[in-house]
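Deliverable D2.4 — example input (C-alpha cells):
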C-alpha cells in the first residue's frame, strides 16, 4: 500500500512538472569540428556563451548573430553521460505507463547516430536507456513484473523494413490499428530481452541489417529513418493491473536540402520522401504544441508509426544536432528553425498553417 501511495505521489509530481513545461522538449547538441574541418581551417560559427541557460548564437555572414533558445544546449565537449542524464527521466517514464518518443534530427554528419546509437566505447541513448530500464525494473521487482521487448525498423522511401528479421522478407509491412486504438505492424519481430548483456547484440544486429542490399551503407543510412521500439508490459503485483507502453528511439534521415539541379530519378524520389516525412513530423508536433484539433499523423509512415507516442499524455524529446562549421551554416540555421517551430515557440504562425 505504501508503495502504491508513493507511486501515485511520484506520478502526480511528475505530471505537475510536465504540465508546467509541456510534454515536448528540444535539446540542441553540437558536435566538435572534425579533423578534416580543422585541417581545412573551417571556423566555428556557434557561440556557446549562454549554453548553460539553453541559449546559443549562430554567426552568419561574418557578423549577424541569430539567437536560439532550447530546453538544453550541449557544447562539443559535453559527453554521452551529460546528455543521457537529461534525457533519462523522459525515457524511463515508459516504466510508469507513458508512451515516449525520442528522436535525433539534423543534417547528415552532425551526430544523430552518435547520440542515439553511440559507439562501442561511447554508447548512446538507446543502450543507456535499456540499461537503466533493466536496473529500475529490478529495483521494483517486488511490486512490478516487467516484460521488455524490442523491435528495430527502418523506413526508407515510405516502406517499412524489419531490421531484426532474418531470411527473405518480401512481405510488405503495413501499419494496423488494434481494437484498443493503438498502432502496430503485424509480423514484425519483437525480441524479448531479459538482460542488458543481450541488448548490445540485438541493437548491433539491427544496425548491421541496414547495410544489407545497399551499395553504400553511409548513404543509405543517411536517407532512411532507423527506429528502435522498446515495448514495456508491466503487471502491478499488488493489484494485478497491467499496462502496455512504448518508447520509440529514432535516428532520422539527414535533413539536408539537396541541390535541385543534380537530383533525378531514384535520388529525387528519396529526397521527396525524406522531405515529406520530416515535414510531416514537424507538422504533427507543432499541431500538438498548438493544441490543434486535427493532428495530421497519416501524412507519412514515420508519423503514422509514431502516432501512439506523439500526443495525448505521451512525452516527446527531440535532439536537434548541428555542425559548428562555417561551411554548414545554412543547414544549421535551417535545422534550428525547424527545432524552434517544433518547440512551439512560434505558435501563432504555425497554427494558421495547419
Ligand atoms: P549522423 O548520424 O548525423 O550522420 P554521425 O553520428 O555519423 O552523424 O556523426 C558523424 C561523425 O562525427 C562520427 O564520426 C561521430 O563519431 C562524430 N561525432 C558526432 N558527434 C560527436 C560528439 N558529440 N563528440 C565526438 N564525436 C562526434
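Example output (designed residues):
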Amino acid at each position: 500500500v505504501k508503495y502504491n501511495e508513493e507511486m501515485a505521489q511520484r506520478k502526480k509530481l511528475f505530471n505537475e512538472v510536465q504540465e508546467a513545461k509541456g510534454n515536448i522538449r528540444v535539446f540542441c547538441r553540437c558536435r566538435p569540428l572534425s579533423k578534416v574541418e580543422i585541417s581545412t581551417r573551417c571556423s566555428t560559427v556557434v557561440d556557446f556563451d549562454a549554453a548553460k541557460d539553453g541559449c546559443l548564437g549562430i554567426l552568419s555572414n561574418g557578423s549577424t548573430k541569430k539567437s536560439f533558445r532550447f530546453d538544453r544546449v550541449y557544447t562539443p565537449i559535453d559527453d554521452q553521460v551529460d546528455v543521457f542524464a537529461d534525457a533519462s527521466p523522459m525515457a524511463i517514464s515508459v516504466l510508469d505507463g507513458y508512451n515516449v518518443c525520442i528522436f535525433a534530427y539534423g543534417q547528415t554528419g552532425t551526430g544523430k547516430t552518435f547520440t542515439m546509437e553511440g559507439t562501442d566505447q561511447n554508447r548512446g541513448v538507446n543502450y543507456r536507456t535499456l540499461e537503466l530500464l533493466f536496473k529500475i525494473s529490478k529495483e521494483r521487482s517486488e511490486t512490478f513484473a516487467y516484460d521488455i521487448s524490442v523491435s528495430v525498423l527502418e523506413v526508407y522511401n515510405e516502406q517499412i523494413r524489419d531490421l531484426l528479421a532474418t531470411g527473405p522478407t518480401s512481405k510488405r509491412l503495413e501499419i494496423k490499428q488494434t481494437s484498443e486504438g493503438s498502432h502496430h505492424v503485424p509480423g514484425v519481430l519483437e525480441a524479448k530481452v531479459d538482460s542488458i548483456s543481450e541488448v548490445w547484440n540485438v541493437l548491433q544486429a539491427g544496425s548491421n541489417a541496414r547495410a544489407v542490399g545497399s551499395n553504400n551503407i553511409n548513404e543509405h543510412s543517411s536517407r532512411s529513418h532507423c527506429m528502435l521500439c522498446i515495448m514495456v508490459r508491466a503487471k502491478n503485483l499488488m493489484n494485478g493491473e497491467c499496462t502496455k507502453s512504448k518508447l520509440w528511439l529514432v535516428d532520422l534521415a539527414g535533413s539536408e536540402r539537396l541541390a535541385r539541379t543534380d537530383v533525378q530519378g531514384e535520388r529525387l524520389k528519396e529526397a521527396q520522401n525524406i522531405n515529406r516525412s520530416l515535414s510531416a513530423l514537424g507538422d504533427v508536433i507543432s499541431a500538438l504544441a498548438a493544441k490543434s484539433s486535427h493532428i495530421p499523423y497519416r501524412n507519412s509512415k514515420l508519423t503514422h508509426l509514431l502516432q501512439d507516442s506523439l500526443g495525448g499524455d505521451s512525452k516527446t524529446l527531440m535532439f536537434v544536432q548541428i555542425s559548428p562549421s562555417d561551411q554548414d551554416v545554412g543547414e544549421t540555421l535551417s535545422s534550428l528553425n525547424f527545432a524552434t517551430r517544433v518547440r512551439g515557440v512560434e505558435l501563432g504562425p504555425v497554427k494558421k498553417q495547419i
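The longest helix spans residues 265-289.
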